[in-house]
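Box 4.2: Ligand-aware structure prediction
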Amino acid sequence: MNEDTTHFGFQQVPRSEKHKRVAAVFESVADKYDVMNDLMSFGIHRLWKRFTIEMSGVRRGQRVLDLAGGTGDLARRFAQLVGREGEVVLADINAAMLARGRERLLDEGIAGNVHYVQANAECLPFPDNHFDCITIAFGLRNVTDKDAALRAMYRVLRPGGRLLVLEFSQVTLPVLRPLYDFYSFKALPLMGRLVANDADSYRYLAESIRMHPDQETLKAMMAAAGFERCEYFNLNGGIVALHRGYKL
Ligand code: SAM
């Protein structure tokens, strides 16, 4: 990879173009996003997210940023946990995903302590030392400059705060690999075509997972951005990993 290009799935594209390609993917999938998540993961993404919430330790009165929060699976639960005295910011670069999230939370009667902000993870429009907890679930993979994003998250986290990164990772159980490859590269695009009339976006999903840093690399990236006590938990044989780090 030279300096001016980056990967978009398995393709090399100019760095300045990646965010447009990613935007096109999420504009295309926004309406079917929730149903596809349940279908593709057999509902297991709910357990991964529940684990993230448990590991976040978020309490009443705290201020939480759910970055790349999309349709708000984490934000809605955080809104209940922080209560009236707390605050949740659901931030996403993509207006279509953010609109879906906002509609959904309002439909569920979640209002008052949730704010919606269209923002790029690489340059967060929040003050220094502002949040008690930041989560980014299945979002970091899509960000062009992940190091810049991790530094921005570190800046806006208050001392004592923690970052949780939930993301697809590298499968650690060799026995799973052939099945997982078949599922990702054959079944996902087919499901995408049949349900969302969009095979390409789901092919990008499978490819972007393979291009994402593995568990140890991401842990080292978090440490390089300033996070301390970095650790990760493999879920379902490393299909997904939850990374956690603190600003001390
Ligand atoms: N967090 C939600 C979840 O777990 O269901 C949504 C995840 S969705 C796979 C990825 C989200 O990342 C999309 O909503 C997309 O718009 C957002 N995203 C991609 N690049 C981003 C960036 N640079 N900054 C902020 N959000 C970004």
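In the box above, the bound molecule is S-adenosylmethionine. The first helix runs from residue 15 to 29.
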